[in-house]
UniProtKB/TrEMBL annotation, chain A:
It catalyses: ATP + protein L-histidine = ADP + protein N-phospho-L-histidine. Residues 337-540 form the Histidine kinase domain. InterPro entries: Bact_Chemotaxis_CheA, CheA-like_dim, CheA-like_homodim_sf, CheW-like_dom_sf, CheW-lke_dom, HATPase_C_sf, HATPase_dom, His_kinase_dom. It comes from Cereibacter azotoformans. The keyword Phosphoprotein applies. GO terms for biological process: chemotaxis. This is Chemotaxis protein CheA. Involved in the transmission of sensory signals from the chemoreceptors to the flagellar motors. CheA is autophosphorylated; it can transfer its phosphate group to either CheB or CheY. Residues 1-106 form the HPt domain. Its EC number is 2.7.13.3. Residues 542-678 form the CheW-like domain. GO terms for cellular component: cytoplasm.
Automatic annotation (TrEMBL), chain B:
PROSITE patterns: RESPONSE_REGULATORY. The lineage of its organism: Bacteria, Pseudomonadati, Pseudomonadota, Alphaproteobacteria, Rhodobacterales. This is Two-component system chemotaxis response regulator CheY. Pfam families: Response_reg (PF00072). It comes from the Bacteria. The modification 4-aspartylphosphate is found at residue 53. One of its GO terms (biological process) is phosphorelay signal transduction system. InterPro entries: Bact_response_regulator, CheY-like_superfamily, Sig_transdc_resp-reg_receiver. The keyword Nucleus does not apply. Keywords: Phosphoprotein. SUPFAM superfamilies: CheY-like. Signal peptide: none annotated. Residues 4-120 form the Response regulatory domain. It comes from Cereibacter azotoformans.
């Protein structure tokens, strides 16, 4: 590992430390009423401390300085000198955010000054009870530097004018010197490196063997050292033991010698160095050991996933061959093949799990978003997270960041009321936003719930009408009204705040979620709040597909989009004036889209007695009936992207390889319906 | 035979920096992530000297040193404390616990090697 690698290690480690920091602060805040847990405070302190330590090694001065002040304030908290009230917690949260920013800035390699830095540093100093006038407020003097204690052996001689000479050294160790890992023979050997040395061992105090306490110090030394090195070099050798021995160093006239010499006789250390079995201290081994992890390049994981995908396809092909060869059901080959299949599936699941990550870091980012949004909107908001440990595919997490940010901002801006309004409604002045994640029947369910005023439906309708999104006299149910929020170009805030109104509407949120194979829904109770629910597939590498036949072509439709399948009675199918057709299902009419015709495989058919209709949801809760010729089966398929080879193909999401080796296209129902409805699409030529 | 050093620090960054510096100086290096891990590795590694951080989870540097010194046969093991603070109090606590020497972080390689040399005569 070279230095650049270690630098990268530092920044990766910072991610973990920052996570621990945010986590710890949240925990402190959460347990404020029942008193602080000392270990949590210590963990938070340690995270900042470690960032400072590493930053120091890479000379990231700005980071070191801020971390140091942060650490000082946390130390005051740890020592009980200051109290964790809401104001301090707010400051600590902001400081943690600032620290994250500084790490990011340092990682990017630019040392752009952060505007709030000095201000925040002063706030931290003030909170720690430090006197502002005591040097810290002075920007010049601010470069705190506890890190440069000079222990340098090779440094220039500052302490004594003399360079070299002869010295008499009297050295009498105490018992304690031996007790803390010092070895007189080592000290003497290091001393002898300074020049020519005569050593006399004084063992006059050594008792008879019977009376010998082996831990006691019995030996003294008189040394004459002839050296070219300055005197402070001698002192430095004894630096760590100066309080553990009697040491006298004095310059010696030229002609004096020791009468009796036992030169170079380095005595055996009095303590045995044999290590015995080690007992683990009972009460200090508490706490769980950190989980061992390996950091792997993402490319490698993706390659592995790809190969395992091939393996699963290959296994399916093999099964198909065995089937085609007419191998009897009960033959051993079938049994082995079944084992192979379950193993392949298991490998696939395990490999997929590598890509899965806890959603926690994303949630932590949202906590910050909520804090910032609340501050600028002048509201009091508390974000509570649940199910942070829920594991989701890394790509899903990455692509979820923007929509989730928008939803949190929305919840703060439009959901939570002002403190005055909340108080008058009999609610706590602090609004609560709950962000939760959970695994639900093979999918990930993420919910953003606020306890605000709920959707103002009359206002929503009014805006939708004024913008021409709905006809003037349309009568909409509550659910339909709520759905208007997802319409492109809709924004309820009469004055756009600088947060939500960034040109990203809920329609973009919905389309992003849908591009991940997910769905988003909304429920709202006036006066009690709003809940957005996002449901996502666990992974983007495989999907549950329904294998269908369209004009002799085998195609796959994501099961997640299919609501039901049906064979229509001819009487339920109605023609429209424009040439389109609808099917009546339980009293409502659903437009029919013929896959074969839209993809240009065949001319549109008009009777569907031999076809199957798949009722799919194509976003914005619009239903559509896709016409296919037959359903083969339902299975998990490995998604093979087409973007690199073919670009974006309307109506087609991706491809997969089936068990018999044939390639099947995976249909994107929403794209298909748009294609069918577009003026140039084959479906509307009628 | 190169001398063997056991380096204990909860920060991965510092561990790697220590490893880099010590290997370059010709030592054989083993790493541990905290006091508990250090104690566990002590037997297997049989180091000639230990370098340890102070503030660590599970068991801090003082706890580690006390646990080592509690065994008479380990009283001669040189233990160097690695600390960010130069506060005299911290040093006296380290001394009290039985530390042999101390280095201030961020350590420079020369100081590290010099301190090791002074406790092992390497």
């Amino acid at each position: 590992m070279d230095h650049a690698d270690i630098r990268e290690t530092f920044f990766t480690e910072c991610e973990d430390l920052l996570e621990a920091l945010h986590d710890g602060l949240a925990r402190i805040e959460y347990t404020l009423c029942i008193g602080m847990d000392a270990e949590t405070v210590n963990t938070v302190f340690r995270a900042v401390h470690s960032i400072k330590g590493g930053a120091g090694a890479f000379k990231l001065d700005q980071l070191v300085r801020f971390a140091h002040q942060f650490e000082t304030t946390l130390d005051a908290l740890r020592a009980g000198r200051i109290v964790a009230d809401p104001a301090l917690m707010g400051l600590l949260h902001r400081s943690a955010d600032q620290l994250s920013d500084l790490v990011q800035v340092a990682r990017a390699g630019n040392d752009a000054a952060c505007p709030n830095l000095l201000c925040l540093t002063h706030e931290l100093a003030a909170a720690a009870g430090e006197d502002e006038d005591n040097g810290d407020s002075d920007a010049e003097d601010f470069g705190f530097s506890p890190l440069s204690l000079d222990l340098d052996l090779g440094g220039s001689d500052l302490t004594s004018g003399s360079n070299g000479g002869r010295y008499a050294i009297a050295f009498s160790p105490t018992r304690a010197l031996y007790a803390c890992g010092n070895d007189t023979s080592v000290l003497l050997r290091v001393l002898s490196d300074l020049g020519r040395m005569e050593v006399r061992l004084d063992r006059s105090r050594l008792p008879d063997f019977d009376a010998l306490d082996w831990q006691e110090s019995w030996l003294d030394w008189q040394i004459i050292l002839e050296t070219d090195e300055p005197e402070h070099q001698i002192d430095e050798i004894f630096e760590f033991v100066e309080d553990l021995c009697r040491l006298e160093v004095s310059p010696l006239p030229e002609d004096m010698t020791l009468e009796e010499t036992e030169v170079g006789h380095a005595p055996e250390p009095p303590a045995s160095t044999v290590a015995g079995p080690l007992k683990k201290p009972a009460d200090e081994g508490r706490g769980s050991a950190p989980r061992a992890t390996v950091r792997v390049d993402l490319d490698r994981v993706d390659r592995l996933i790809n190969i395992v995908g091939e393996l699963v396809i290959n296994q399916a092909m093999l099964s198909q061959c065995v089937q085609d060869e007419g191998v009897p059901q009960r033959s051993p080959m079938r049994g082995r093949l079944d084992d192979f299949r379950s193993l392949a599936r298991e490998i696939q699941a395990s490999v997929m799990a590598i890509r899965a990550q806890a959603i926690k870091p994303l949630f932590q980012r949202m906590a910050r978003i909520a804090r910032e949004a609340a501050t600028s909107a002048g509201k009091q908001v508390r974000l509570v997270t649940e199910g942070e440990g829920t594991e989701v595919d890394k790509t899903v997490i990455e692509r979820l960041a923007d929509p989730l940010t928008h939803m949190i901002r929305n919840a703060v801006d439009h959901g939570i009321e002002t403190p005055e309004l909340r108080a008058s409604a009999g609610k706590s002045e602090t609004g609560m936003i709950t962000l939760s994640a959970a695994h639900r029947s093979g999918r990930v369910l993420i919910e953003v719930q606020d306890d605000g005023g709920g959707i103002n439906r009359p206002r929503v309708l009014e805006i939708a009408r004024s913008k021409g999104l709905v006809p003037e006299n349309a009568v909409l149910s509550d659910e339909e009204t709520d759905e208007l929020l997802f319409m492109p170009g809709f924004s309820t805030a009469s004055v756009l705040s600088d947060l939500s109104g960034r040109g990203v509407g809920m329609d973009v949120v919905r389309s992003t979620i849908e591009s991940l194979g997910g769905r988003v829904g909304i429920t709202s109770v006036p006066g009690h709040g709003t809940r957005f629910s996002i449901s996502l597939p666990l992974t983007l590498a495989v999907l549950d597909g329904m294998v269908v036949d369209v004009s002799g072509q085998t195609m796959v439709i994501p099961v997640s989009t299919i609501i039901e399948t049906l064979r229509p009675c001819p009487a339920d199918v109605h023609g429209l004036g424009s040439g389109g057709q609808v099917v009546g299902i339980r009293g409502s009419f659903v437009p029919i889209v013929d896959c074969g015709a839209v993809f240009g495989y065949r001319d549109p058919v008009h009777t569907y007695d031999k076809s199957v209709l798949l009722l799919v949801e194509t976003g914005r809760q619009k239903l559509c009936a896709l016409v296919v010729d037959a359903i083969h089966d339902q299975r998990q398929v490995v998604i093979k992207g087409l973007e690199t080879g073919y670009g974006d193909i309307p109506g087609i999401a991706a491809a997969t390889i089936l068990g018999d080796g044939r390639i099947a296209l995976i249909i994107d129902p929403e794209g298909l319906v748009e294609l069918g409805a577009s003026p140039h699409g084959p479906g509307s030529e009628l | 035979m190169p001398l063997t050093i056991l380096a204990i620090d909860d920060s991965r960054t510092i561990r790697e920096l220590l490893r880099e510096a010590l290997v370059r100086a010709g030592f054989q290096v083993h790493l541990a992530i905290d006091g508990v891990d250090g104690l566990e590795k002590l037997d297997a590694v049989r180091p000639n000297a230990v370098i340890t951080d102070i503030n660590m989870p599970r068991m801090d540097g003082f706890g580690f040193i006390r646990a080592v010194r509690a065994q008479p046969e380990q009283s001669a093991l040189p233990i160097i404390v690695l600390t960010t603070e130069s506060a005299a109090e911290l040093k006296s606590r380290a001394r009290e616990a039985g530390a042999t020497a101390w280095i201030v972080k961020p350590f420079d390689e020369a100081k590290l090697v010099s301190a090791l040399r002074r406790v092992t005569a390497a």
